[in-house]
Amino acid sequence: MTDFARTRALFELPEGIVYLDGNSLGPLPRAARERVAREVSREWGEKLIRGWNEAGWMDLPETVGDKIARLIGAAKGTVVAGDSTSINLHKALTAAVSLAGPRKVVLSDSGNFPTDLYVAQMALRALGGGHELKVVAPEEVAGTIDDTVAVLMLTQVDYKTGRLHDMQALTAKARENGVVSIWDLAHSAGALPVDLAGADADFAVGCGYKYLNGGPGAPAFIYVRPGLGDRIDPVLAGWMGHEAPFAFDLDYRPAGGIQRMRVGTPPILSMASLDAALDAWDGVSMDDVRDRSIELSERFIAEIEARCPELTLASPRDPSARGSQVSVAFREGYAAMQAAIANGLIGDFRAPDIMRFGFTPLYIGMDDVVRAAETIERVMRDKLWDRADYRARAKVT
Ligand SMILES: *Cc1c(COP(=O)(O)O)cnc(C)c1O
User: Fold this and answer.
1) Is residue 270 within 8 Å of 217, Cβ to Cβ?
2) Has 239 been labeled as part of a binding site?
3) Three-state secondary-structure class, residue 254
4) pLDDT tens digit string along 108-139?
5) Nearest ligand 1 atom to alpha carbon 217
6) Residue 103 — left, alpha, or beta (φ > 0 → left; ψ -120 to 50 → alpha)?
7) Pairing between β-strand 132-136 and β-strand 79-81 as defined by DSSP bridges
8) How far apart are the C-alpha atoms of 28 and 12, rounded to whole Å?
9) Which among 173, 225, 322, 356 is annotated as catalytic?
């Protein structure tokens, strides 16, 4: 059994705050604080440029990639960390389209995160191959996969509602129809067991700063199915993905496998933070995380429904159809979340009316869930949300 008391002690959690927003930005792992401080003073400060060879900087994208691989059911050497999720999606989509042959349809759904759709809209236009982005309702995806579809591009867990796609079944259907699959694991990696190899997915991307706790703007990751990497001509090519970056050849020759998905110089301080943060997963079983996450979220839903009739559950009620978050709808959701935050409960808000709470067993326990429900009850019962200053929208919600 995973010892969640041990993992909780690995994080800096401010006194008096219940943090149910680790699905948006994970908290600070103590090891990341120490690692970044050391990386700055000892490696950068003293080793200077020698750090690229002596401190393992050059290989960090692959070392970090291998640590993430374990959490998403991927083999070593199939994941590389770097860039942002949006950029990695661009790499995956352009590669997928070129592998897909003459078909023109890229299929996604209306539950996808907007950046994924933006990337697709403009990348397909830039490719100039007459590709079309087809966006259907999440429940219509399975029925729309057929042999006219080139690429299936989905986010497994809906960022707003927490609705969970059946990756295994959809990827299998894609494979049967000769469709290249891309999964965005932004709200899956570190949230629930993922089996990319078992599902036989072609590409996946995901975030380093959400459930993986790498810090604000931490590098993202990209996965390419074993054997597929060598068949990709990267559209976003750069010297770090070259076969021999320090040969300084004038012509691009892609490195083997996953390494060709690298582009430019990795952000070492951020990468080091993510590297240290990932050590929190040592000895952690994703099955235990999933079981605990369901216990926490089921209790949260029960408490909220008993205490707050004003709120409507906006997530699937069946925990097996949900990721690791619970969303509730409330007309004054933004102001209510501001009031909750002012009272020591941090969650977040997604327009137009969703209050979102993430459950992260590494550092959230049942006491936190009960305290969170008590705070939300107070916000509702005493109408603490009914204040003009809570309604004034900040830039980041
Ligand atoms: C959070 C999130 C992103 C974020 O992309 P960035 O490029 O890191 O800003 C992308 N896709 C999904 C599904 C997300 O939830």
Assistant:
1) yes
2) yes
3) strand
4) 999 999 999 999 999 999 999 999 999 999 99
5) 8
6) beta
7) unpaired
8) 5
9) 356
Question: Rounded to two decimals, what is the model's pTM?
Answer: 0.98
Ligand 1 binding pocket (C-beta < 6 A) is: 84-86, 113, 115-116, 155, 159, 184, 186-187, 207, 220
Residue of 113, 159, 211, 363 marked active site:
113
Residue 160 is among the residues annotated as catalytic for this protein: no
Domains of the chain: 4-29+285-391 (3.90.1150.10), 56-281 (3.40.640.10)
Closest ligand 1 atom, residue 159 Cα: 15
CB 260 within 8 A of CB 228: no
85 labelled binding-site residue: yes
Which amino acid does the sequence have at 68?
I
Strand blocks (E) in the chain? 11-12, 18-19, 28-29, 79-81, 105-109, 132-136, 149-155, 180-184, 203-206, 221-224, 312-313, 325-329, 345-346, 348-350, 354-358
223 is in an annotated binding site: no
Compute the distance between CA of residue 331 and CA of residue 140 in angstroms, rounded to an integer. 28
Q: Whose CA is nearest to atom 13 of ligand 1?
A: 113
What tens-digit pLDDT sequence spans the chain (397 residues)?
999 999 999 999 999 999 999 999 999 999 999 999 999 999 999 999 999 999 999 999 999 999 999 999 999 999 999 999 999 999 999 999 999 999 999 999 999 999 999 999 999 999 999 999 999 999 999 999 999 999 999 999 999 999 999 999 999 999 999 999 999 999 999 999 999 999 999 999 999 999 999 999 999 999 999 999 999 999 999 999 999 999 999 999 999 999 999 999 999 999 999 999 999 999 999 999 999 999 999 999 999 999 999 999 999 999 999 999 999 999 999 999 999 999 999 999 999 999 999 999 999 999 999 999 999 999 999 999 999 999 998 899 8
Residue 246 CA, ligand 1 centroid: distance in Å: 32
> Which ligand 1 atom is nearest residue 209's CA?
8
pLDDT of residue 366: 98
Residue 184 is a catalytic residue: yes
Structure tokens at 14: 């401010």
* Active-site annotation holds for 330: no
